[in-house]
Fold:
Amino acid sequence: MQLFKFGFAALILSVIFSQPVFAQSFREEGVRIGRHEFKDIKGYRIGQASLKAGISTEGRYDSNVYLTSNNKKSDYISITSPKFLLDLPLGIDERHLVQLMYTADAGAFSDQKDQNYLNQNAATNINLRLPFGYLNVNNDFKDTVDRAATEFTSQVHRKENKAQATLGIEVNKLSYELGYSNFIKRYYDKTYQNIEYNEDVVSGIAYYQLLPKTKALLSYDRGFVNYTKDSTRDSVYDEFMAGLKGELTSKVVGIVKAGYQTRNYDAAGQRGYNGFVSEAGLIGSLSERTELTLKYVTTIMESSFGNNNYYNANILSAELDQKLMGNFNILLKSGFSRNLYPESDTIYNTKRADSLISEGAALQYKFKDYGKVSLGYDYKELMSNIDAKAYNDNIVSMRFDLLM
Structure:
């Protein structure tokens, strides 16, 4: 009941202030899923519906399967990845949209067979265009051991689910987004039950049309983090941000916003956070042959390391998709993150500080509309003031995609 009271109050306030997650900050109306996974697939039209599907096979060499600082073990991995996306427009003018998406990665190791895995992702998305704006409802479910964007260096089997709803309202030069999201994380191994949690966020964002192609924005989030087994980690946070969003060209959108977050814990003696947060990004087509995405985020992340409840993450990433001669194109990606932990760890007797570098390149050839083959290389290095946490990893891969 207490959660409901706080959530309802924050939702009312969000008519004036709001902030959706970064991945949705570029949207004007609702959300579409599958843009990246299915961008090269034309699909099939069945009445009003559109069905896109594909399957890929990949051979990969991994120089450091367990991401260890020493005693590295390498292996060859075979990965099979099916996927499909159903788009179902509704209404006479197809103004509404229902989407269903499924993707999976099944990995089989040559030697380290205990590392074989199956990652699955199922998502639904509903966009309803209303006379005064829009309503979006979506859900994203993962059953995974993927270590990306986690603190884990070993495979940890878990379930994650994020459900959210956003109401968009347009009034002359003003527009608003009111939102609610719920995130759940659960582990299969009981060893990790103490770090299982739910996160509920009520949010909103207000835009004002400053110039024909530029909007000012003001946002507010109120979040509630509740751990299922360890209530000393429960927290409540408030986040205010202000910024600008604009169209640099007809195909390029940029956004920058910054603000302040206060995070307090229910248990006495737990270190909270009071500090700067920000987001900036550029996404779009610089030309018919060049697509570029740049992102920078300063934020607070839930931590599973030692006695730390959170860490301060500063993340910079860039992706370039450049078409070459004929049907060739090259994909380049680069990332850097700096993660700072507030508490001195009881085992290592120091405050952990990590820097993660990731680089990747892939040369791709497309066979008209039905397939593509790519050869890629990825490098990742974690530098840490705790030597046992540092590692580097090299991955060489060859992949074939069948598009349907």
The first helix runs from residue 2 to 13. The radius of gyration is 22 Å. The domain at 2-43+150-403 is CATH 2.40.160 (Porin).
